[in-house]
Amino acid sequence: MTSDERDPEWWPDIGALGWTWVDCAAERTEEIYGKWHPVFIDAIIQSNGAGFVGTRGFTMSTLASCRVQLWHDGATRLIRWGWPGADNH
């Protein structure tokens, strides 16, 4: 799983659901390999998924969604957010 979530309290709940992720901060990925490597790692993980849920209007979400659909015939969903009911359409 990938996310730009910065709240450290959020991640244990994700782990409890059985999901795993790459912690680029803990692994010092940017420090060791450069600032673009965390982005590359996220793109690789996202593009090889069986499915993808992302945020409508965000470039990285659009690219990952297209890759999952075209490369793996995977299910995708781009959601709106920011207000209650934003995706009730």
3D architecture notes:
By secondary structure, the chain is mainly α. It contains five helices and two strands. The protein has helices spanning 10-16, 24-27, 29-33, 37-47, 59-72; strands spanning 51-55, 75-79. The chain has a two-stranded parallel sheet with strand order 1-2. Helix 5 links the parallel strand 1 and strand 2. The longest helix has 14 residues, at 59-72. The protein is globular. The two termini are 27 Å apart. The relative contact order is 0.12.
Structural class: mainly alpha
Percent range of helical residues: 40-55%
Main sheet summary: 2 strands, parallel
What is the averaged pLDDT score? 89
The 3D shape can be described as globular
> What is the number of strand segments?
2
| Low-confidence parts | none
* Rg estimate, integer Å: 14 Å
Number of helices: 5
Order of secondary-structure elements:
HHHHEHE
Short key terms for the protein model shown above:
single chain, mainly alpha, two-stranded parallel sheet
